[in-house]
Design brief:
This protein is an alpha+beta fold. The chain has 3 domains: 109 residues, Acyl-CoA dehydrogenase/oxidase, N-terminal domain (Butyryl-Coa Dehydrogenase, subunit A, domain 1, Orthogonal Bundle); 110 residues, Butyryl-CoA Dehydrogenase, subunit A, domain 2 (Beta Barrel), CATH 2.40.110; 150 residues, Butyryl-CoA Dehydrogenase, subunit A, domain 3, CATH 1.20.140.10. 53% of the residues lie in helices and 13% in strands. The chain contains 12 helices and 8 strands. A 4-stranded mixed beta sheet has the order 1-4-5-8, with helices on one face. The chain has a 4-stranded antiparallel beta sheet with strand order 2-3-7-6, with no helix packed on it. A hairpin with a 3-residue loop joins strand 2 and strand 3. Helix 7 runs antiparallel to helix 8 and helix 9 packs antiparallel against helix 12. Bound molecules: flavin-adenine dinucleotide (FAD). The site of flavin-adenine dinucleotide has 23 residues, from strand 1, strand 3 and helix 12.
């Protein structure tokens, strides 16, 4: 990365590199093979001092620093995509919650969550609206002292493992589709069920599932956004945290795929010629092109994150959305090159290249999808409303 980083960013980065090398990378193959929940990785993250990144120190977190958090998530994703995805959803939940919560709400909900090292995740996307994450069909009902929550959420990472759900829906049945509330939903209240645990091509250790939430009563102050304005009031925090977690995750997974491709081609020898694949210029060309794409994308992603930490939304909104589009097309490009460079050995399904390939190809489809990012950038440039 071609920029100077602060002392704290260095400290976070060093911790993330140590976690990647000593814990995440050594476990990654086995986690993928059995599609199991990476408990030991989360235990190590909880002990690392990085668990509260994204939450201000005054509320028990490790601090809010988009670039610093991006540095951490890239390393984690380079070691184990599944762990980074689930940890990213955790950071991406507490960060905007703490950003929009009142002091009283943060003291009641966020501070104890940080003390107890609770894990959060996003119960957000609905099957009815898919990648159009700004439209919600589900709605809550107001009760005398709180809210009655009901929804079916299509893809929830860390389903059943999380202690806290970032939970979204409309404030009432007659509210417009874009009127969204945000609740802090304590998983221990019950009332939720996993209805369909799906088995992804990749990211197999992050336990994603469809979930149904039925008649869960929460108190008034569990609504961190209660007037349907989440898309306006929480948007800067949502976009910054998305950039530092989800977008960077796919950068780390792309780098991981380059790493494993290099390892493979250095070890594969053709016995008729005695040449390693790494000595073939076609392969050298592909490796160079893969790394160049990842490095160029990294600069866009980190420039947007750097601005997100220091400037107003107008200066970094479009670069951040472009960064998601760029990271998606880079992941797709790197995946194609890796298959060409490694051949059938990479396609057999159970090797390191194959795991990194299957993880990386989720980049264009995870919301905001590459298609939608390009549309949103186009709308911004054409002075058209972003969401509709
Ligand atoms: C590994 C993984 C983990 C996830 N974790 C979570 C989570 O923790 N919490 C959560 O809430 N969600 C999560 N999601 C959901 C995710 O972010 C997406 O919202 C979801 O994948 C949308 O899928 P869909 O099939 O319903 O998309 P659809 O909306 O059916 O879209 C299908 C394709 O069509 C394209 N498309 C749709 N409409 C248009 C249009 N008008 N113009 C151009 N292109 C269009 C989309 O870009 C997409 O590529 C996860 C998804 C994955 C894959």
């Amino acid at each position: 990365m071609l920029r100077e980083i602060t002392k704290r960013q260095h400290e976070w980065l060093d911790k993330a590199v140590a976690l990647r090398e000593n814990v995440l990378a050594p476990n990654a193959s086995e986690i993928d093979e059995f599609g199991r929940w990476p408990k030991e990785n989360f235990d190590a993250l909880k002990a690392s001092g990085l668990w509260g990144i994204g939450v201000p120190e005054e509320f028990g977190g490790a601090g809010v620093d988009p670039l610093g958090i991006g540095l951490v998530l890239e390393q984690l994703a380079r070691g184990c995509g599944s762990t980074a995805m689930a940890f990213g959803m955790h950071v991406n939940s507490f960060w905007p919650l703490a950003a929009v919560g009142t002091k009283e709400q943060n003291e009641k909900y966020i501070v104890p969550a940080m003390e107890k090292k609770l894990q959060a995740t996003h119960a957000n996307t609905e099957r009815a609206t898919g990648t159009q994450f700004w439209n919600f069909l589900s709605f809550a009902q107001k009760t005398k002292s709180g809210w009655l929550l009901n929804a079916e959420k299509a893809f929830v990472t860390s389903a059943g493992e999380a202690d806290v759900y970032w939970f979204t829906g409309r404030p009432s049945e007659d509210a417009p589709l874009m009127a969204v509330n945000l609740w802090y939903l304590d998983a221990s209240l019950g009332g939720w069920d996993i209805t369909d645990e799906w088995h992804g091509l990749g990211l197999r250790g992050q336990r994603s599932a469809r979930m149904v939430f039925k008649d869960i009563e929460v108190p008034d102050d569990a609504a961190f956004v209660a007037d349907g304005s989440m898309l306006e009031t929480a948007f800067p925090a949502i976009l910054a945290s998305l950039g530092a977690t989800l977008i960077v995750n796919f950068l780390g997974m792309s780098q991981s795929l380059v790493d494993h491709t290099i390892k493979h081609v250095k070890n594969r020898v053709h016995q008729n010629t005695g040449l390693r694949l790494s000595q073939v210029d076609m392969v050298q060309d592909r490796i160079g092109a893969m790394q160049a794409r990842v490095d160029a994308t990294r600069e866009l992603v980190y420039s947007a994150l750097d601005l997100a930490g220091r400037e107003s939304l107008e200066s970094w909104m479009v670069p951040m959305i472009e960064a998601k589009s760029a990271v998606a097309s880079t992941a797709t490009y790197v995946a194609e090159q890796a298959l060409h460079a490694c051949g059938a050995q990479a396609y057999r399904g159970d090797g390191e290249v194959s795991r990194a390939y299957r993880d990386a190809i989720a980049a264009p489809i995870m919301a905001p999808s590459e298609d939608w990012c390009n549309i949103l950038v186009g709308r911004a440039l054409l002075d058209e409303p972003l969401f509709g």
